[in-house]
Amino acid sequence: MSSLIKGPAIFLAQFVSDEAPFNTLPSIVEWAAGLGYKGVQIPTWDTRLFNLEEAASSQSYCDEIKAICASHGVTITELSVHLQGQLVAVNPAYDTAFDAFAPEYLHGKPAEREVWAVDQVTKAASASQKLGLTCIAAFTGSLAFPYVYPWPQRPAGLVEEAFSELARRWKPILDVYDAAGVDVAFEIHPGEDVFDGTTFDRFLLALDNHPRCKILYDPSHFLLQQLDYLAFIDIYHERIGAFHVKDAEFNPTGRQGVYSGYSDWTDRAARFRSLGDGQVDFVSIFSKLAQYGFDGWAVLEWECCLKHPEQGAAEGAPFIAEHIIRPTDKAFDDFAGGTIDKAALRKMMGF
Description:
This protein has 13 helices and ten strands. It is an alpha/beta fold.
């Protein structure tokens, strides 16, 4: 247990806007640093902050991006291709909704949109390599999720075929990342085909246990499903490559539970909250991650239906900093130890 979780860091996607200081990379990084953040996770789809095309082809551009962050004492934790990854696999039921994640000229053209998405995610491997990063954050996309509830009865083989196709699309991409020395950490998230441990197992099996297939661990999505998010770390710690620190709460009533009755976020039984305002046991999470030697970044992902984002961001940095555990290099009872005396040991056991 010699690793130290790095942080605090912040995912910038939820804060970008056309208003200063959230409209350029230099100004938003300066803002984040002023709140105490040491790292930033950068969305690659927002050209106000980052030009993916240029980053994939230009080392000098990547050096410039790193220098901007370093000038404020901030490190890039990972790039994010969540939106492009979503478009690698889209069930037709979601075509219209997810068109918003692609350029307008691709709207209504799902086949061309998929080609564009694969190209984007692939270019992010080169950009990550040029930036000296070892992991990227992504979504898997969804082919089977509209059929998540087994009614009407699913035709035999539908789920297996969906995961086979999902793996067929992602394996060549993961091979590119393998060549670049970069992991892909998929956020385990409802709406994706990979939304819990069982579905991750299906995906990993279909990928022949690809070494670059990792997990972006976000306990908020597990609490809302009523999944044991601490046992998840015990089971999957070797595959956890990234960490979103996000809070949530689940308050079932006589009217709604996990599915929350199509309600808006404010009125849902299951909803996201700012750090410290929800029910996630972060003391135990940070303890388990330290126990298993996780040495990645603790990245705030702010999503809350009640609190203003700037307040959530300001509270998030000290919250994460207070929860990061400095691993011990000694046993607490070392003072009572002594030298090894084999004869004495055998005598204690009656030999």
